[in-house]
Amino acid sequence: MKYNPNEIEAKWQKYWAEHKTFAAKNDSDKPKHYVLDMFPYPSGAGLHVGHPLGYIASDVYSRYKRHQGFNVLHPMGYDSFGMRISAYAERLLQGLNDIDWSESIKESQRNWIGKSVGAMVDFRLQNSESSI
């Protein structure tokens, strides 16, 4: 049987979404544990391997704590201010305003870190430095 990554990944991404696999439970009797990463920052129009890299260690730790019986909350956050000069130049080239550009980067990070990488991140709760 030949490995088909598109088919296998789509299968598991659908399962995770339907079963809310990575969502923390508010009504849990388990002890609570909170894991927060450094926010991935915009570094141009796209993403690179460094964006999910920061989530690997915290993802492993989150899964470890969940297996120990903790109710783990691992939310997603976004750095909306990183590398402002580069970010501004990219927005000008793409014709996007601040809000559109910021949202497009967030969506790319959600798709890559949350879906393709399959990190144990609860995307129901998200924080952005631009909203602080």
Give the arrangement of secondary structure elements:
Elements: H1 5-19, E1 32-34, H2 50-67, E2 71-73, E3 75-78, H3 84-94, H4 98-116, E4 122-128
Parallel strand pairs: 1-2, 3-4
Plain-language structure description:
With 132 residues, the protein is of the alpha/beta class. The chain has one domain: Rossmann fold (3-Layer(aba) Sandwich). 48% of the residues lie in helices and 13% in strands. The protein is built from four helices and four strands. It has helices spanning 5-19, 50-67, 84-94, 98-116, and strands at 32-34, 71-73, 75-78, 122-128. The strands form two sheets. Strands 1-2 form a two-stranded parallel sheet. A two-stranded parallel ribbon has the order 3-4. The protein is globular, with a radius of gyration of 16 Å. It is an enzyme of class 6 (ligase). Pfam families: tRNA-synt_1. Its EC number is 6.1.1.4.
Short description:
The protein has 132 residues and is an alpha/beta fold. The protein is 48% helix and 13% strand. A two-stranded parallel ribbon has the order 1-2. Strands 3-4 form a two-stranded parallel ribbon.
Throw out a few tags for this protein:
single chain; 132 residues; alpha/beta; Rossmann fold; two-stranded parallel sheet; 4 helices; globular
